[in-house]
Amino acid sequence: MSSLRDNLGKTIPNISVNIPIQQLLTLYGVEFEFDWVEEAVPDTNGLVYVRWQTSPNKYTILNTRQLQSDKERGFYRAYTQFAGGAQTEIIPPRNLRADSTVVSESIVEKYSAPTTINPSSEVIQVPLFGSPGGGPVSATGDINSDFAFRIYAPGTDFILEFENNSDDISYFKGLFKWFEVTAEALPIVKEF
Fold this sequence. Notes:
By secondary structure, the chain is mostly beta strands. It has helices at about 20-30, 185-190, and strands spanning about 5, 10, 30-40, 45-55, 60-70, 75-80, 80-85, 85-90, 95, 105-110, 115, 120-130, 135-140, 150, 155-165, 170-180.
């Protein structure tokens, strides 16, 4: 197995230790995050969107997805085929590594409603079962959204959707954390 270089130019030696992949990537890579916050999602099937275009040159390894809503019926969905819509606000990704100035190659932006979304391109659907007036509640149980580990090809284009099915306006927050790695790093990632 050959050595790799991380985003800071450090050489990653041949690795044969058995540690969690997130810890390995944190040791040798740069982690990014973005917060998607909607203070007032309209009631009765109200929809809000974020477009996330992953790095065109690196693989995106999504390692955390946390979702919260303060109402009893909400759904988070992600799709890869859509048309129409427009940027309404940029959400700048943050570099979580204090000793690095590497900038994410991903583009994240709040988005107006797409004209069409292909339902067969759905990547995930997560129901959020909160309680009225009970404050923000994360998804729990078998559909736990607090951990997600996915590898996406360079240039994957997502439309992320939150739907409020309650009869009152809703607060929604999504926190996403990921690593951007080169094709050379993928064999090590897949070993774990």
